[in-house]
Amino acid sequence: MAAAMLKMAIVAACIALVLLSMGPPGAMADIQDDCRATCRGLCDGFGTNTCNSVIGIAPAVLNNVNFFFTTCKVRVSGLCTPLCVNTCSLNTVTPASPPPPPCKP
Fold it and tell me: Which residues form the signal peptide (predicted)?
């Protein structure tokens, strides 16, 4: 019984060491939030410019369609935002830290 408890304590200590070596869990959320804030403006501007360019191709037709610009901007921004956030948050790898010591039960 005591041997089983000792093994369980060693395994729990190893799991705790691994989890502690991973760094703070809130770091990714902060990076994602910062990237979303940055990308929102960039993608809205990109959507506006893209849709104005498309309207410039056929202004006589597309200027008369009331919902075209809004729909176009929402769809272009919607495609841009995930790509921008993923690109922005790619460099999130923390510097290499030494691995935790091996656990021997």
Answer: 1-29
| Torsion of Cα atoms, 82 then 79 then 75 then 49, to 10° | 100
CB 39 within 8 A of CB 81: yes
CA distances for 23 relative to 4, 8, 51, 57, angstroms: 30, 24, 43, 51
- d(CA 102, CA 105) in angstroms, rounded, equals 10
* Two structure tokens written together for 82: 């995930």
What are the residue ranges spanned by the domains of the chain?
25-92
Higher pLDDT, 25 or 62: 62
pLDDT tens digits, 26-63: 545 677 888 889 999 999 999 999 999 999 998 888 88
